[in-house]
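>> received
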Amino acid sequence: MKAPAKDFRVLATVTDYTRFYGLPAPAHPLLTLIDLGQAREQANGVDLTPMLGPIVPQLYTVFLKRGLNGPLYYGHRSYDFQEGVLGFAAPGQVFQIDEVSDTSQLTGWMLVFHPDLLLKYPLAQKIAGYGFFSYDVHEALHLSAQEEALLAGLLQALKLEYERPIDAFSQDVLVSQLEVLLNYANRFYHRQFLTRRAHEHDLLSRFDGLLRSYFAQDNELPLPTVQHFADALHVSPAYLSDMLRTLTGQTTQQHIHHQLIEKAKHLLLTTSLSINETAFQLGFEYPHYFSRLFKSKTGLTPAAFRFSAQ
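>> returned
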């Protein structure tokens, strides 16, 4: 992958974003919907090199791109947007388009909104629960034609609302419409997990194998993290947890804890290690954390569990 340039451009507001790309000023200060085809036509004949990035928007973005002949770099990953897929990014993510990319056929749309739009609404906290904002771009959402049409209708309604003169109800309506759109996206992502069963079940099998292999080792190891398994499987932690929750009802961390407790039970029943030594063997730096987790999962302290099996 081409190393990104060092001069990152931070775009702090929606106006910064539209100005950077030479677009008209947004009709609403905290939200705008950009037609990428129209933006491309407006930029016809203009040198787009300075606009290729890297940029760091301090904004939420939801984007559907088609016809980008070349990779889009997002964080540390890249994705080819020849096909129409939906992507999401939280504030602070780095974007860059390769200089050799052909944008002459670029179409689609990009919804950009500032976190301040949500501040006084429950969505400000709820949005952190939408795992797709932290997915890597190669885990983007593949839409059916029906799903894409449904989102297009929602976006059109949202656009009509933010182009109206602002009144006491404008922000309430915009946020409620935005929440409906994100809820549909959440539904579509979980549909994708279920309909792409061959791929996801392969991922599940590989995760299960890695997890069991990790805890099958006899030597003392550090406690495994969600990031450790996500990196091994080449997916993001959020994607892995959402996939596992959809297919098994449990997150990655819950799977790790289950296997950890099973290994702890084995050590307590088949070795003479003390409780503290068992904790260290499992990777705990502080034994009381191990005892607390073990009791929360089994209802017994490690010592009580060992005694009950005698």
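>> Residues 1-5, 79-83 have pLDDT under 50 and may be disordered.
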